[in-house]
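Continuing the batch. This is chain 6 of the set; chains 1 through 5 are on the previous pages. Same settings as before, nothing changed between runs. Recording input and output for traceability.
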Amino acid sequence: MAHLEKIKLQMNLHGKTGNPFAFLIDFEMINPRLFLLNSESEKLWFDIPGFSKTFAANGKSELKTWQTFPVSFKHYKKGFDLVKKHILNGDTYLLNYTQPTPVITNLTPQEIFSTSSALFKIYLENEFVCFSPERFVQIKNGKIFSHPMKGTIDADIVNARDIIINDSKERAEHNTIVDLIRNDLSLVAEKVNVDEFRYISKINTNNKNLLQVSSAISGMLPSDYPEKIGDIIFKLLPAGSVSGAPKKKTLEIIREAEKYKRGYYTGIFGIFDGKDLDSCVLIRYLEIEKEKLIYKSGGGITFMSEPEKEYNEMLKKVYVPIA
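Output for chain 6:
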């Protein structure tokens, strides 16, 4: 807790003085980190809208091997059933349930970072590589924006757009997340509004193409927001789209059901340039454990969720965006 408060105060101070920085906050919020952008000592690389710190790639690497070793359906269902029990008890009405999947590939984390295509790419040497399609919050000209992402389908399925938009389970799940994010933004902003509801974007991957459903929400920050930038970000955590609602009880159930630490997976990464800020949710994430790579993925569980479908969605998200 002391370390968290220290990072929050440092973010506020750099915001007040207009000193640019990058930040990483893990899901459990026990190991947040701050990086000054004028420092070359940190082994952190990123490529996000408006900001880039990358290394020279030795040509385009080709993905030849991609083997996955997910948990068994039996193992997955044990946690799923626990989540469903809590939902039926009224303890939670939406929970993002995840599991780790070891993978074997011919590409190094550096090659995955340089070759993959994503809105947000982050590589922290010896720790993780992430290629996230999901923005957390963006601050521009005193206005805060969020684009929660909830709902995924194979783009090659006939009538995939109509199916995902008209699916009652997916619609209910998305409605819940939009309400949650709107309430979260109301903690730090005024005039919070849903600007666009359930729009679709396409993601190309090494396995299959996906359609992803998102919404756009915005609000107005106070004029002195830069000197409160740390307070603002931490008030919004953990990200609603990768935790659930209500947050406090849902987080307890997540720990009970998943039985592993997410670490930086489903945490956030962001950059503050002295005035404006952009950040992402750390999903589509490969953790580096010595010589091994562990992919972490999952999805939202509601009272309408079916274990087989949710298990398959978790597996579908184990990909790299290399077409």
